[in-house]
Amino acid sequence: MEIKTFGELIDWTRGLHAHLARCLAHCATKNEEERARALLDYLATHESEIERIVKEFENQGDAKALDTRVYDYLAHNPVKTHRTCDEPYAELDFEGICREVFDFHEQIIDLYRTLIGKAEIPEAKELLESLLTMEENESMRLARQVGRMDDL
User: Which residues have C-beta within 8 Å of that of residue 99, sequence separation ≥ 6?
Assistant: First the structure.
């Protein structure tokens, strides 16, 4: 996907969360470890919720910010994820799944941080800061919930 505007960038990140949710849910039925299956189910639900939240940013975002061109996006390292969902999470254990999903979120957070510095209008910067805050908060919530699951 060629990303030209902040609106397209947000749509792309929403799509990444949606894809990850589907992949996690799909792999949950195939993982042999019970704890890993429970984790995958939880993570799939969580990613679907983040997708919904990001969609709201698209729907309610400032039109001027959404239509602003994204410059130097390609200079940022692209987010690495299992885009084809060839069942990578079905083979991972609890800790491996956590590493992969937290790494995914850190890449999105890094992308937003990088682009905040490149935003040329205040509305775009504010939009990205809101997305960054949401992503950081959701990552912390996820870490707490996964930590509780790990304690069981």
Answer: none
The sign of the torsion formed by the CA atoms of 83, 11, 26, 44 equals: positive
Q: In terms of residues, how long is the chain?
A: 152
Domain count, the chain: 1
pLDDT tier for residue 149 given thresholds of 50, 70 and 90: confident
CB 3, CB 70: distance < 8 Å: yes
Match 């084809």 to its residue by tokens.
Answer: 84
Residue ranges making up the domain that contains 20: 6-151
Tokens of 82: 């299992």
Q: Which amino acid is at 112?
A: Y
* Residue 34, CA distances (Å) to 28, 102, 106, 145 in order: 9, 20, 26, 17
Instruction: Tell me if 1 is assigned to some domain.
Output: no
Q: How far is CA 74 from CA 30, 46, 53, 133, in A?
A: 35, 28, 25, 23
- 120/124 Cα distance (integer angstroms): 7
pLDDT band at 2 (very low <50, low <70, confident <90, very high): confident
